[in-house]
Amino acid sequence: MNRQGRGSTGPGRPSPLPDHDYEPPAPVRELPDGRLLVAFHGDDDRRRVFDVSKLPLPGWHRALAAVVAERAGPGGGLRTFAAATTGWGSLSRLVKFLGALPEPPASPDQLTPAHLQAFHDHRATTTPTTALRDMGEARLLFALPALRDLVSAEVLDHLQRRLPTLRAPEPSTTVVETEPSPPGNGAKRLTTGYSDGELARLLAALRSDAARIRDRIRAGEDLLRRYQADPLALDENDRDLGRVLERMAATGQVPTPPAARPSPFCPERRQLAGRLFLTLRDLPPLMMLTAALSERNGETMKELPVRHRVLEDRAVELVIVKRRRGTRRWFETVTWEIGAPGRELHSPGGFYLLMLELTARSRQWCGSPLLWSVWRNGYAAGLGVPDDHVAPFQDSLSCTSILPTAWAANRPRPLLADPQPAAAGPDGTVPTLAVQGLPLQVSFNRIKTSMEVRRTKRMGGHLPSTAKSNSMPVLFRNYLSGDPVITAWAEEVLGEALVDAEQAARQAHERAAKAAGGGPRVLPGPVDTAAMEESGIGPDTARQAADGELDTGWTACADHDQHPLTGEACQVTFLDCFHCGNCLVTRDHLPRLLALLDALAQRRRELAEEVWWPRYGPAWVAIRQDILAKFTPAELQHAQADKPHDALLDLIENPWELP
């Protein structure tokens, strides 16, 4: 059969089948002693066997084994070791609770809604953080045919009810001090990123430690290479060390240095192992720098594969795991840039290839398909052997602790957070000095949030372009919303946009006023015919204006029949009057103008800024800058008391002409 392309299949040519019948292994096995076992093999290539016989209520065992096998099987929703273990824990707690009741349901058909309600109340009282999760898992298990056909319809209806969400208690009005909400009370826990200064210091520390680890192992490899090429060319100390390194490379075992005390826990052995192998203490800076460069979360970093493909010496292509995306949607092919030579600490692809180089010798002995392989002291790990090479995340993602905060605090130069303002003293005064020396809290989640924030800023806030490993709702809700850096940046961008919009409106008003005769004519003070004639208005026009015969929507028009720009009868909207040389504004018009400003402010709350400024911005600028500024505060205060409730703004919108 040809393995390239379609092979030997085609229309009219069936696919070749094996000679003998194939029977897949049964997911549920019954041992001769009567035990029921469910074998699990997850998509993360981790395995476990669940012993259903250890649970109480023997009348439930066969049905439970069937639903566990289906729930954790290839088509189920529990396809990782952690997910399957969590689901098994929820099921075990339910069955053990039912078995401990005074009158337990011996079989599924004896289960009642009261039993489930009692279980939920018990979990909500003792462990509220997992109550909803346990009931949610029970709902999914009882929806499977193996249990659904055995329980009553009342039980199924009860499981489909919406459960009350645990909420944080309402703050008391009598308590002065405020404490942070403890985990588990239902409140959302936001993971904020780092400030620009904190992120810069963190990345510098990560690169510094990664460079030190790289130089240490490369120096050991170089010494080993020179020793194997010509031992006599080395001095005595290097020759002795080269002999030890050659033995370490050949056997994977680290001897006790001659000058060290003969103890399996002596630190000299760990220092000697670090000349060729990565150690557990090297993992925090290397993994966090990988997470920062790739902009991925810590779980993905733990399961980076060895298998990859180099594309024209420019990029690395590999398949990574992104959990919690749903069934059969975990794996994603990514392409990481390698970068220029010598810049591997600044590009994800180059750093990935560097990690392949540094972990190669340990991976030779443990044979793991995952990237991270390290040397560890076998005695310290309780293995009873001197040395061990292990993939720390091969069996479980949580079997090896990284402790990023401990790494940051125990460095020769500890990482510190930005100075925070000091709290107010007993007399209510706030010192000017800030609190110094607070340790920086480091975690993969904060690094991921910080990188998401920086990418969002680079993309100008465009979420469709920013969303990389998460959907847009998840990106905004879990990473961007509430982050102080992104909030400050958004406020800055919004402020700049408002300034630009206001400047554009001012320029539009100035251009319109220049083209239409220089803008409105404002007459502060008493409104009578003599005052208007002194300002240069003709006697007839002054009389008509004083009597209100020339009033329009909010101002007066000195010559409606001859527009300054066209020389014809005016055809523009009343909002354009504020840019026209025929516009006449007196003290009597102030109440209507103030009402118009209130109406424009209301429209601004209802419309987007990019819609409001072109439509109403020029008129708003003209009123605020060219008209109101020429009246006294007393005149404005008097007009404020007399302004009408209806500004008549709807009369110029022509909503009846819209489709």
Task: Note the main attributes of this structure.
single chain; 659 residues; mainly alpha; three-stranded antiparallel beta sheet; 23 helices
List the helices and strands and how they pair.
Layout: E1 28-30, E2 36-41, E3 47-51, H1 61-71, H2 81-99, H3 113-126, H4 131-142, H5 145-148, H6 153-159, H7 196-229, H8 236-251, H9 267-273, H10 283-294, H11 298-302, E4 309-311, E5 315-321, E6 331-337, H12 348-358, H13 360-366, E7 374-377, E8 387-390, H14 404-409, E9 420-421, E10 434-435, H15 444-458, H16 463-466, H17 472-480, H18 484-515, E11 521-523, H19 529-534, H20 539-547, E12 556-557, E13 583-586, H21 590-606, H22 609-627, H23 633-642
Parallel strand pairs: 11-13
Antiparallel strand pairs: 1-2, 2-3, 4-5, 5-6, 7-8, 9-10, 12-13
Account of the protein in words:
The N terminus is likely disordered. This protein has 23 helices and 13 strands. Strand 1 and strand 2 form a beta hairpin. Helix 2 packs across helix 4, helix 7 packs across helix 10 and helix 15 packs across helix 17. With 659 residues, the chain is mainly alpha-helical. The strands form 5 sheets. It has a 3-stranded antiparallel beta sheet, covered by helices on one side.
